[in-house]
Design a protein that fits this description.
Elements: H1 39-54, E1 57-58, H2 59-66, H3 70-83, E2 86-91, E3 102-106, E4 111-117, E5 123-130, E6 135-142, H4 148-164, E7 169-177, E8 180-181, E9 187-190, E10 195-198, H5 200-208, E11 212-216, H6 217-228, E12 233-238, E13 242-248, E14 251-252, H7 284-288, H8 290-300, H9 307-332, E15 336-340, H10 343-346, H11 349-361, E16 371-374, H12 381-395
Parallel strand pairs: 4-7, 7-11, 12-15, 15-16
Antiparallel strand pairs: 1-3, 2-3, 4-5, 5-6, 8-9, 9-10, 12-13, 13-14
Helix pairs in contact: 1-2, 2-3, 6-12, 8-9, 9-11
Length: 398
Amino acid sequence: MTATDASRPPAPAPASTGAVPLFAGRALRASGKVLPEHARSHNRSLVLQTLYTQGAQSRADVARETRLTRVTVSDLVAELLAEGLVVELGQREDARPGKPATLIDIDRTGYHVVALDLSEHTRFRGAVLDLDGGIVAQAEVALDGATGERAVQLVLELLDGLLALTTARVLGIGVGSPGIVEPNGVVHSAPNLGWTDLPLQERLAAAFHLPVHVANDANVAVLAEHASAPGDLILIKVGHGVGAGLIVGGRPVLGAGSAAGEIGHVVVGTDGGPRCACGKHGCLEAWLAVPRLTAELERLGETDAAASAREETLREAGRRLGIVLAPVVGALNLSEVVVSGPAELLDGPLLEATVETLRIRTMAEHHRDLRLRMTAHGQDIVLRGAAVMVLSGQLGVS
């Protein structure tokens, strides 16, 4: 089932924004002047980024902040006003001499973003968010073991329901999917969902006639962290599988085959270990994924006698994570590692063992300030990151 265009306000034309895919090697936000051949779209993003982060400004304020000429800013603002992306808020009330300046801002109430998180093993989750990241509405559908085309239909049904909950124009749809996802939104491989070379972005765009951005769930999640704490970081997402999102120098890292961060099937150590769904023994995912950990803890039971065995199971999973992370932290000199997943499993003995292993396996003098923490975004991290992806992809802001 898909929504009809007549049932919702029209979306802005994506071609007019100069948007490019977020995961195409570019920085998350515009930060200065650029070559003439790219100037207009870059400067447009620069104006929008300034308004998004600074709030209401006059045209002269924007010109000073961006170091663009007043003529350039006035021209760009006129274009953005005509498209409905920017609104005038009235004159500034101050005691300065001369004619009061007119304040402008992004139309924060005029647009919604729809975000999907397809990473959980029992359900697909979605939300409608405003441009400031506030969640307006949420919905979910039970996965019930669906794979292949049936899983795609569940995505369409979830989106259809979410779009019916929007009360403003939809800027775009952001999707965090498990597996290896190419920059064009093709899910190259998502074994848990039975997807191979699925053109998910193209199919959703055709069904809903809206701009769509699809990326790996861990790569999407790291955008939410970077938006609130800019800097180099790696985010480990633990769910049905295990993946990592990495941002270095303000740019998401994808790798040559779009598989950067696929740490779940790295074999940890040479001592064997649990059999993984991929057929190997001792993959990080076989030690750390939520279904595996949960099943092992349930097997051990809740008795006092089993308490030490339960803690050792968690600590062993943490040590395996630390072994995989140590060369990454050492090679990139990262100062922050963020972990996303069920806090009742991860926060405590598991993360303590990860930190201990990292300190043992890296040069302590180079990583004495290393910080490993749980995400502050909780279970909504992929949804919030998907909204950031749409904002960056469509407007060049984050």
